[in-house]
Each structure stands twice: as structure tokens, then as C-alpha cells.
Write a structure and sequence with these properties.
Helix content is 64%, strand content 5%. The chain is mostly helical. A hairpin with a 2-residue loop joins strand 1 and strand 2.
Length: 195
């Protein structure tokens, strides 16, 4: 049984598939981590306007960057930073907005005790707010770094890529599970005097 109307895996999977199909048909495949590189480029551009440059090639104005990462894929990050109100950024903002709307309209609500430290974390690591925030930050940085090294995140590779049978996405998914399962088993092992 799922409390407070929380969706089970089947409902969630069907909804995710519907969103992925709609994205494929209407705009482009889903991907999230690229937007962090785009936002970084936007911030960098405010500090150093020369990081995104315009030049003429064959009579056409094109964007480029002296930074190899920003310049890859025909300066895709430079183009997205120059025109920030794009599908990717709106999609990420909509995810945040959707989570907020879910919270306001009856989605699962954390107890007072769980607001800073979720029950699952507290069970294995104690009710330590500083430790929880520190580990969440480190985990987020490592996850994003790994996603950019892999050329995509779990949404880009595992939802969009696998549904297109991309070999790189299948390798990404295998790598995620090969490392994530043993790591979770090690992190959430029973500790002396603990659960």
C-alpha cells in the first residue's frame, strides 16, 4: 500500500513513458545534466563575455568559444547560453515546479522529523543534519561530474538513450548498476549497535 496517494512503480513508469514519448514526438529526447553546463556557461559569460564569441563563417554568423568543452558539438553550450529560454532549461525548471505543485496538492509530505533528515538516512547514519547535507552535496557533485564525463545523465542515457537502443547508453546503464549496487550494499550495511 502506498500512503497519501503516492504512485507505485507501475503508475510512475507509465507516466514516465508518456512524458518520454511526448518529448520524442514534440521536441527532442529528455536530458537534464546538459543544462548544468549551459547554466555554467551563462554564469561564465556574465563574468567574461569573451567566453562566447560570434564570428562569420561562409557568410553566416556562428557562435564559438575558446573553451573546448563549451565549443564541442558545434558550440551547442555556447548557443544554448546565448539563447537561454530553450527547451532544456524550461524542462528542468518545470521539473522543479512540478515537484513543488505535487507537494502543495497532496503529494507525500515529510514528517517534521524527516524534513531535514529522511527516515532512511536516519536509520543508517543517525539524525545528523550536517552529515546528511554534506553527503547529499558530495553525492550530487560526483553524480553530475560523472554524468558530464559520460556525455549524459540517467534521464539522457537510461530513459532517452536506451529507448533508442544507443550502445553508449547501454554501457552507461551497465556501469551505473555495476557500481551503484555494491556501493549501496556497503553504505547501507547493518552497523554495530544499529539497525
Amino acid at each position: 500500500m502506498y500512503p497519501d496517494g503516492e504512485w507505485n512503480w507501475l503508475k510512475g513508469g507509465i507516466a514516465l513513458a508518456a512524458v518520454a514519448i511526448a518529448a520524442f514526438l514534440l521536441v527532442k529526447p529528455i536530458g537534464v545534466s546538459t543544462q548544468f553546463a549551459v547554466v555554467d556557461t551563462m554564469i561564465w559569460k556574465t563574468l567574461d563575455p569573451n567566453i562566447v564569441q560570434k564570428k562569420e563563417v561562409n557568410g553566416k554568423e556562428v557562435l564559438t568559444s575558446p573553451n573546448a568543452y563549451i565549443n564541442k558539438s558545434h558550440a551547442a553550450y555556447a548557443r544554448a547560453a546565448e539563447h537561454p529560454l530553450n527547451y532544456g532549461l524550461i524542462f528542468v525548471l518545470a521539473m522543479i515546479g512540478g515537484a513543488f505543485v505535487s507537494l502543495l496538492t497532496g503529494g507525500p509530505k515529510p514528517t517534521e522529523h524527516e524534513k531535514d533528515v529522511p527516515e532512511g538516512f536516519s536509520r543508517y547514519f543517525g539524525h545528523n543534519k550536517a552529515l546528511r547535507y554534506t553527503l547529499a552535496f558530495i553525492g550530487g557533485v560526483l553524480t553530475l561530474y560523472g554524468a558530464r564525463l559520460a556525455g549524459g545523465c540517467t534521464s539522457g542515457h537510461m530513459i532517452s538513450g536506451i529507448s533508442q537502443t544507443a550502445v553508449s547508453s547501454l554501457l552507461f546503464a551497465a556501469g551505473v548498476f555495476i557500481t551503484a549496487i555494491p556501493t549501496a550494499i556497503w553504505l547501507y550495511r547493518k552497523r554495530k549497535g544499529g539497525a
